[in-house]
Specification:
four-stranded antiparallel beta sheet; 8 strands; alpha+beta; single chain
């Protein structure tokens, strides 16, 4: 399976993308801008149109390691869908970024009103979450595990 396919907005069926896009607003971030910090309230999420965003994890006493780099069509932010709605990672624009920004409350409201949209969004985010969990595990093993520990068991 192609990783890019499982982590982009295109994974969401077209009819559901069409329901969400009218509530999106176009935003931009300069290189180096923080989109969010780990532990902050997750009130928005983004779909990258151009540029790259890195996801990082706070590690006490060390520089925050980059867990994954996201680009065109990819979802930035997962924590908006699940209580307590707090970011589990941080995100930074590594280049100038243009994105669609979505208000989490508005999307959750649309999902409550349409069970099919709710199921599609939950499935989409679960796919991305599964991929991100694997990426985080692999990256942390690369950084902190014994040599060769990141390979499959």
């Amino acid at each position: 399976m192609n990783v890019a396919t499982t982590t982009t907005m295109n994974t969401l069926p077209a009819e559901h993308r069409e329901q969400l896009l009218p509530i999106a607003r176009q935003v931009s971030f300069p290189q180096g801008a923080r989109l969010f910090l780990e532990g902050q309230t997750a009130g928005n999420f983004w779909i990258v149109r151009t540029g790259t965003v890195t996801l990082d994890m706070h590690v006490p006493g060390r520089r925050s390691p980059v867990i994954e780099t996201l680009g065109h069509g990819q979802l930035v932010g997962l924590s908006w869908l699940f209580p307590p709605y707090e970011w589990q990672l941080g995100a930074e624009a590594m280049s100038p970024v243009r994105a669609y920004e979505f208000d989490a409350d508005a999307v959750r409201g649309l999902c409550r009103a349409d069970p099919r949209l709710d199921a599609a969004v939950a499935h989409w985010v679960a796919q991305v979450l599964s991929h991100r969990l694997h990426a985080a595990r692999t990256r942390l093993l690369d950084l902190f595990g014994p040599y060769g520990s990141a390979g499959p068991r």
